[in-house]
Fold:
Amino acid sequence: MIVVFGGTTEGKRVAAYLDTKGLRYIYSTKTETGSFPMQCGQYRSGPLDERGMELWLRTENVVAVIDAAHPFASLLHETIDVVCRRLSLPVIRFERDYDIAGEAFAAGAVHYADSFSDAVDLLRQLSPQCVLASTGVQTIGVLKPYWSENEMKIRILPSNRSLRLAHEEGFPSGDLLLMNPSGSLEEERRLIVDYGIDCLLVKESGASGFLPVKIRAAADCGIGVVVVRRPELPDSFIMVSNEFELSRELERLSESCHAEK
Structure:
């Protein structure tokens, strides 16, 4: 059995590939997501700590793990690393595309921060009038030192869970933008203009997180962008970035298992 940690565009790509190969797998997410067609897969949801993940992987007789979760899911990546090292299970990381066209930087200032704490310090130095944060509801708490003293809009998903988390953090309801990002350049430009935004705060979430579109929109509107760098992944992960590379690694692991037998 193969386990895929997903909840992302990359996770669905991995599931679709495994379906074409007729390989059995379990698709796992932290929170329940909308269903999608799976021919050879089972679905599970819910957070896993080290003990729970180890017990589950043992019970399911897992032979390999594919980590296609969000790049900022640091705790999950660390848990996968610790547990799979303990169980001697290989972990393949299906990584997303982080390339950003050079012209996207041309007309706007792009600043990088190594953490959200650094991003708060950087925003204070830049002193924008109104920031739009497209970093997700989970970051509202770590950004509180900034938004409690400065004007900030935060875009979150229009779900009861997201609203509840935002309210628990005490974030002003009037500054929440409830929407599912479409990846539309025009939509990003319109948000900037309509809300008088003069700085964007974003994660280094790659092409599937619409980062190039957000930077392009900011450049077109002549405003700056603060990008929080993605966390580093464990050294033990086998890195792949497309289905061809994934196929190669799975074949290599299969050959290695047969050789050991």
